[in-house]
Write a structure and sequence with these properties.
Rossmann fold, five-stranded parallel β-sheet, 8 strands, binds adenosine monophosphate, about 15% strand
Length: about 210
């Protein structure tokens, strides 16, 4: 198996499913969003440049993203394939990726637009272990986070104004990739508007 791309709009559940697929396949998750948020937090030159785009819900320029990916996939843990989450998001990113590594599956998690806003607003993450929760749809268990302690984090861009821009960027710049990967025979769709476990089961069976 080569590398996997998890594809879908913001709030589709890519991060949640990536964590679960990682447990089953051992493939490391590479989330450009997480890498950018870490860069913003550390005030690196990349973080300083990316922050404005992220706050507005716009895509960060391809050259910045591709430089991050090029470095990341040189790490030893990426030698046997990885799971990309939130990357590629433009056709030039996908073309560049195809020259860097081989992709065996593009797994699209489909969620209708009208469900996205409610899924994104209400999303929380445990700052300690990274598990994603949702106030209504996937609340933190009463016993606490499975990692033993729960540190609630909310993303700065998980608000209604930014979500609409992110959704717009998805339709305009990212969704054309579906056709690009479909032509290559790599594209698989799952209905992401269901219980988390059902979606994981479908994704894993596509990888068998
Ligand atoms: P995410 O965590 O994947 O929702 O990404 C959060 C934000 O980071 C996005 O709204 C973009 O501003 C930026 N970003 C993440 N990945 C990419 C990418 N592959 N291309 C361009 N911008 C990205």
């Amino acid at each position: 198996m080569g590398s996997i791309v998890l594809f879908g709009p913001p709030g589709a559940g890519k991060g949640t499913q990536a964590q679960r697929i990682m447990e089953h396949t051992g493939l490391p998750q590479i989330s450009t969003g997480d890498m950018l948020r870490a860069a913003v937090k550390a005030s690196t030159p990349v973080g300083i440049e990316a922050k404005g785009y992220m706050d507005r819900g716009e895509l960060v320029p391809d050259d910045i993203i591709l430089a991050l990916i090029e470095e990341r996939i040189k790490e030893p843990d990426a030698a046997n394939g990885v799971m990309f989450d939130g990357f590629p998001r433009t056709v030039p990113q996908a073309v560049a990726l195809s020259e860097m590594t081989s992709i065996s599956h593009v797994l699209a998690i489909e969620v209708p637009d009208e469900r996205i806003v409610e899924r994104i607003c209400g999303r929380t993450t445990c700052g300690r272990c990274g598990i994603v929760f949702h106030d209504t749809f996937n609340p933190v268990p009463s016993s606490g986070c499975p990692c033993g302690s729960y540190e609630e984090k909310r993303r700065a861009d998980d608000n209604e104004d930014t979500v609409l821009n992110r959704l717009h960027a998805y339709h305009l710049q990212t969704s054309p990739l579906a056709e690009w990967y479909e032509e290559k025979g790599l594209f698989h769709r799952v209905n992401g508007d269901r219980a988390i476990n059902e979606i994981t089961a479908d994704l894993l069976s596509l990888l068998e």
